[in-house]
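User: I'm preparing a small set of examples for a lab meeting where we compare how different chains pack in three dimensions. I only have the primary sequence for this one, and I'd like the structure in token form so I can line it up with the others. Please keep the answer compact; I'll paste it straight into my notes.
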Amino acid sequence: MQTPEIDYSLPADVLASTLPPMLTIRQAAGTGVASERMLRKMCAEGDIKATKVGSDWRIARDPFFRQFCLVG
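Assistant: Understood. Below is the structure token output for the 72-residue chain.
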């Protein structure tokens, strides 16, 4: 299953509404707040609300956007 292309140039509040409730590391990194490597580290250390799914992380979209002040 192929995921739809995401336009990361959209304003943050519009972008948030186009993303799924649980983000992949790649989707979260696409917002520009941190690299994929840094986000993985932050997830592992508990700095970001995330859940481990197999060997991947899923990041809760709304807390992520609030934590990095991307939306009000």
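A couple of notes for your slides: The radius of gyration is 12 Å. Residues 12-67 form one domain.

User: Perfect, thanks.
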